[in-house]
Specification:
By secondary structure, the protein is mainly alpha-helical. Helices cover 81% and strands 0% of the residues. It folds into two domains: 1-229, no CATH class; 241-448, no CATH class. It has helices at 11-40, 44-80, 84-111, 113-120, 126-141, 143-158, 163-186, 190-212, 231-262, 267-283, 285-303, 307-334, 336-339, 347-373, 375-380, 385-409, 414-438. The longest helix has 37 residues, at 44-80.
């Protein structure tokens, strides 16, 4: 047994960490699809307004997730050092700083709501704008609750306990669906009903995790002492979190710009791209869960100063990611004859969608884990600037620049854009694998 040989994580501990994370990721995507279907019943203007605001919300949510990741890395490292009091202090500071950042973002989104939407989406129809304004204001009220929820969930994962965050996620998403159904179909509140359901569900989930994290018997707990601003601890958290937030935000912005390129190719290619994106997200869901698991495991090893175990678990989790990710991507490809029937689109559109899915999931089997999961080994060891710079440059030069050259200039359309995506993956892999093998990522951590 691994635990008998001095390893920090047994196979059973890894299963308890990873399985709930996968379930949580699948649940989030599935409920998101149901949520979209319910909102669509309020009309096209409502659906358009929500979708436009969701693009903004996704950028903001990535900031919360990145800061939470920074806190999770710091807390995991302290647990690795067996310094529980410092881990608890890091947890308090993480909750404090995410609450403050999210409150500022909430206020800015509400005060500058119209200017923000008009700047990003110039010229949208008045009814779409009114729906977007309503949805943005109410959803902005949920920012502090979502930010604190994300931080608490990340701290539970730092303890190797993802089951708690999974349970809270189930409660949150169930309440969201019930709220949507009641407020949209029975009270006919449209986008306001959808936003209020989201707000209420996030409030409940935030309270649940916040209360559970106050248990003194946990390896990490909050609220046990007088809460005071600790600049050094917050700087340490943000040192890890901010580069990830910038990277994720640029990545999401890049995806929006890529869609804007595809939008010039016509209705068929826009629809095919939307269908392919829908299916592709299912293929890499387990990989997204493994990204979170990697932070916890490697962070703990780094905190313990045991880079031998860090390398051991990095290889072990990468192999597991390749296995699970490969099976899911293969499953998406093999089930396309059935899933494509669910979309009432033209044969031309579905044929192109099939090609796009084959490009994404076919190459994802070989490339996705090394392109996206391996970077979390670097981040967990405080090597955060290198993956940020590589990801941003690769996105700009290859994902965007090459998309325009191949898709527009060479006339390949959406297929050219998705080909550029594969080139982006290959570039990322060459940089990240080289960085990992060089061992330089092992020089950034210092116990504090």
């Amino acid at each position: 047994m691994e635990e008998e040989q001095g390893y920090l994580f047994s196979n059973q501990m890894l299963r308890k960490l990873i399985v709930p994370l996968i379930i949580e990721q699948i649940l989030a995507v599935t409920v998101g699809m149901v949520d979209t279907m319910m909102v669509s019943s309020a009309g096209e203007a409502a659906t358009s307004g929500v979708s436009l605001v969701d693009m903004i919300n996704n950028l903001i949510i990535n900031v919360f997730a990145a800061v939470a990741t920074g806190g999770a890395v710091v807390a995991s490292q302290y647990l690795g050092q067996r310094r529980r009091e410092k881990a608890c202090e890091a947890a308090d500071q993480l909750v404090l700083v995410t609450a403050l950042i999210s409150a500022v973002m909430m206020a800015a989104a509400i005060v500058f709501r119209r200017g923000l939407l008009e700047t990003i989406y110039h010229g949208i129809e008045p009814d779409v704008m009114e729906n977007a304004l309503v949805y943005l204001v109410i959803s902005a009220l949920s920012y502090p609750f979502l930010a604190v929820y994300n931080s608490c969930a990340a701290l539970f994962r730092s303890m190797g306990n993802s089951r708690i965050s999974m349970q809270a996620s189930i409660v949150m998403n169930t309440l969201n669906i019930i709220g949507d159904y009641i407020l949209i179909f029975h009270f006919h509140m449209g986008v306001a009903g959808a936003a209020l359901a989201t707000l209420a569900s996030r409030m409940v989930a935030c309270v649940i995790l916040n209360v559970r994290l106050r248990n003194k018997n946990l390896d990490i707990c909050i609220g046990q002492g007088k809460l005071a601003w600790n600049g050094d601890m917050i700087r340490r958290i943000l040192h890890i979190g901010i580069p990830g937030g910038v990277e994720n935000s640029i990545f999401q912005l890049g995806r929006v710009l890529v869609v804007s390129i595809i939008a010039t190719f016509g209705t068929v290619q826009i629809a095919a791209n939307a269908v392919a994106n829908n299916l592709d997200s299912m293929g890499v869901l387990p990989g997204q869960a493994m990204n979170l698991a990697m932070i916890t495991v490697i962070g703990r090893c780094v905190g313990a100063g045991d880079f031998g175990q860090a390398r051991y678990y990095a290889k072990k989790l990468m192999k597991l990611t390749y296995l699970i990710n490969g099976l899911c991507c293969a499953g998406v490809i093999l089930t396309m004859p059935l899933t494509m029937r669910l979309y009432g689109l033209s044969e031309e559109t579905l044929a192109l969608a099939v090609v796009l899915v084959l490009i994404h999931d076919g190459f994802a089997i070989l490339l996705w884990p090394a392109s996206f999961t391996l970077t979390n080994v670097l981040r967990a060891a405080n090597d955060v600037k290198f993956p940020m710079v590589v990801s941003i440059l690769s996105m700009i030069i290859f994902r965007l620049g090459l998309s325009y050259v191949i898709g527009v200039g060479m006339g390949w359309g959406a297929i050219g854009v998705w080909t550029a995506m594969v080139v982006d993956w290959i570039v990322r892999i060459s940089c990240f694998v080289g960085r990992y093998r060089s061992g330089k990522w092992q020089t950034f951590y210092s116990a504090g």
